[in-house]
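Q: Predict the bound structure with fructose -6-phosphate.
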Amino acid sequence: MKIIHVSGYEEMSGKSADLMAELIQNSNNPVIGFATGSTPIGLYKCLIKKYRQKEISFRNVTAFNLDEYVGLAKENKNSYHYYMNEKLFKHLDISRRNINIPNGMAEDLEQECLSYDRLVSEKAIDIQILGMGLNGHIGFNEPGTSFKSRTHIVDLDQSTRQANSRFFRSLDEVPTKALTMGIETIMESKRILLLVSGNEKSEALARLLNSTRVSQEFPASILRKHKDVTVMADDAALNKIH
Ligand code: F6R
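A: Predicted complex:
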């Protein structure tokens, strides 16, 4: 794993955008895996800026998102469809038909997972952006998820629902299920960029970097087995690394 140490959130956002921009400029049809959550918001702002300054174009970009809640419509402000549109896609020249996000409203969720997974595999993600949960989850793959998992339906951990309830009016409104790319699906990405910022992630990051243990109990540990992972983390997140 390559570790890029940055001073804080702003530098992480700028540097990760530079890295993404380089990839976009050097590829004819870049396929990018996007994440939601708080961590990549700064990166997305920087990408929009680069697009407005005509440094990069998303005309030939194909996008895949990691996950989506079950039961939230695209128009729901808490859906990841809404998040991606507001925070990134609507500001860019990306073609709508190249945007792929699991459909948590599908009538047949199992079928949706299968089709989504097939599409991800066919296109092959050049770079997958990841954030990490406090319990080491990546996507919505909670501790205990099989490393062999493909895109699937998950029951969300109480801790994850609690953490994400900050976006909802109450904990009760946070969906109990989600669709997520599986760990094996994520690991097939050619390159992975894991962004970690802030003191509250320092325990989790220490668990990932201080040990060589790879265990399903800490999903992000699988990243140690990937041949091209960059972890970009700031001072606060790295403060428990020895
Ligand atoms: C988001 C996702 C999650 C988040 C993780 C960290 O699509 O899949 O795994 O990356 O929960 O979230 P934040 O960035 O809000 O700390």
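A: Residues 35-39, 66-67, 131-133, 137-140 surround fructose -6-phosphate (CB under 6 Å).
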